[in-house]
Amino acid sequence: MSAHGHVDLGHTVAGWAGTATAVLGCTVTGIAVVAVSAPTALAGIGITVGAALLTWLLHLAGWGKPSGPRPESEWPWRVRDRAARRGHPDCLGCRLAGRRGRAPEKASNAVPVASTVTG
């Protein structure tokens, strides 16, 4: 059991790759500030923006995580999300890609009422 309890923290290939690329972009931008170099700053900003694009593309390819809980068998970060092709419900990235995704149908607790017609 981890220090966070028995939960899925959402570690995914998309998350790790995007975070590592964003850290690299911020590092390059920081070096540019110290070196007072506009071209290096633009490169760092470009890398950081590229991190967002990389994360989004990996998410759409199935290497991300849908919002909400996942079954424990899908917790390892190398497990691919098979539902990504259809899109995830309430996911901005999927909506931007034109994937709408359907919300899972909820079980209704309502009991159907039989209508009685007198006539």
TrEMBL record:
The chain crosses the membrane at residues 12-35, 41-61. Keywords: Membrane, Transmembrane, Transmembrane helix. This is HGxxPAAW family protein.
